[in-house]
């Protein structure tokens, strides 16, 4: 009888510790009735986090728990570039999220190569003016630059971790593409400086991943995504609007991003004069050459064979395998 009592007590304690990981604010952001979503075992949340109450600036996010062991797996912030393109519209629903918009913009398909198999994925629409993120002060939009964007993104992370305290001790990574290659290093430096001056909540930053893309993409996907996120029932389910007074969601707001050729990127990296650990060579996935890489001290430059501008859209299995290796701190397979 005593053994059973102990087991029951342990089960009750485990249950309440799991529930208490969600603050009251987080529970309000829980997504429960997203149109077109299939049944999944993980939870996801969406909503606004205020970053400047004086000016009325708030940033929109969509967060997907890892499919297993979310309390143990890393937390990864994903940013798209542009500048001015939506991480929800591109990263979450065209590339690496668990739900991809179908080719009519009317429903969702399950993505078997979603990155939340390996980590907790946090998609942020940044800076304000992108996607659902906004400011109530018009002059803010004239101030937007890389430093402004980094400061708001840092404020978002701080506020988000207050809303989701269970993830404060998780290892933290940042990943993104295109102009996020500028956003992410600047934000990483800002986090590093703030961690050192102990002026705010410590963020356990472990690494950054910035794919450098080239090639084309399917513009029709943008149209399907635009249709989906401007639906009243979708905006209401994601807590982006009340479903009556709708937001005008656009996938990009600003200049289009430039193409970044491999040779130019290699040239720029060579200018850093970093010590080379592994010379330029092929890497493999499922017994096929998936691209080439060169490891430097503190940096790895990798290409994806046959990938277009958005690597996960063109090479979903390979990108997930590479992401998994990155989180483990090891290179992808360098031989068959």
From TrEMBL:
Gene3D superfamilies xref list: 3.40.50.12670, 6.10.250.940, alpha/beta hydrolase
Keyword Transmembrane: no
Compartmental location: Secreted
GO biological process, one term: proteolysis
Enzyme Commission identifier(s): 3.4.16.-
UniProt keyword annotations, A-Z: Carboxypeptidase, Hydrolase, Protease, Secreted, Signal
GO molecular function, one term: serine-type carboxypeptidase activity
Signal peptide positions on this chain: 1-21
Top-level EC class: hydrolase
InterPro entries assigned: AB_hydrolase_fold (IPR029058), Peptidase_S10 (IPR001563), Ser_caboxypep_ser_AS (IPR018202)
Gene Ontology CC, one term: vacuole
Entry-linked PROSITE patterns: CARBOXYPEPT_SER_SER
Stored PANTHER family: SERINE CARBOXYPEPTIDASE-LIKE 32 (PTHR11802:SF15), SERINE PROTEASE FAMILY S10 SERINE CARBOXYPEPTIDASE (PTHR11802)
Family of the protein in this entry: Belongs to the peptidase S10 family.
Name of the protein this chain belongs to: Carboxypeptidase
Classification lineage: Eukaryota, Viridiplantae, Streptophyta, Embryophyta, Tracheophyta
């Amino acid at each position: 009888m005593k053994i059973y009592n102990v087991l029951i007590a342990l089960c009750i304690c485990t249950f309440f510790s799991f529930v208490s990981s969600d603050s009251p604010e987080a529970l309000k952001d829980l997504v429960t009735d997203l149109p077109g979503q299939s049944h999944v075992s993980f939870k996801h949340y969406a909503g606004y986090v205020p970053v400047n109450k004086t000016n009325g600036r708030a940033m929109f996010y969509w967060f997907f728990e890892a499919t297993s062991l979310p309390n143990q797996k890393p937390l990864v912030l994903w940013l798209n570039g542009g500048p001015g393109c939506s991480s929800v519209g591109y990263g979450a629903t065209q590339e690496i999220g668990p739900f991809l918009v179908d080719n009519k913009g009317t429903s969702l398909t399950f993505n078997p190569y979603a990155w939340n198999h390996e980590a907790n994925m946090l998609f942020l629409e940044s800076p304000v003016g992108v996607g659902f993120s906004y400011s109530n002060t018009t002059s803010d939009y004239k101030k937007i630059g890389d430093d402004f964007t980094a400061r708001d993104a840092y404020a978002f992370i701080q506020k988000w971790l207050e809303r989701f305290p269970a993830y404060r001790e998780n290892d933290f990574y940042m990943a993104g593409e295109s102009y996020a290659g500028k956003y992410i290093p600047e934000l990483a430096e800002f986090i590093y400086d703030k961690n050192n001056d102990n002026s705010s909540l410590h963020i356990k930053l472990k690494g950054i991943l910035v794919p450098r893309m080239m090639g084309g993409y399917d513009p029709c996907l943008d149209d399907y995504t635009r249709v989906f996120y401007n639906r009243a029932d979708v905006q209401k389910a994601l807590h982006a609007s009340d479903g009556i007074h709708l937001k005008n969601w656009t996938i990009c707001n600003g200049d289009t991003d430039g193409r970044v050729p491999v040779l130019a990127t290699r040239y720029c990296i060579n200018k850093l004069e970093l010590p080379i650990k592994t010379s330029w060579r092929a890497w493999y996935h499922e017994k096929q050459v998936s691209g080439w890489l060169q490891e430097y001290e503190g940096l790895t430059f990798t290409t994806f064979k046959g990938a277009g501008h958005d690597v996960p859209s063109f090479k979903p299995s390979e990108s997930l395998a590479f992401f998994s290796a990155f989180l483990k701190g090891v290179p992808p397979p360098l031989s068959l």
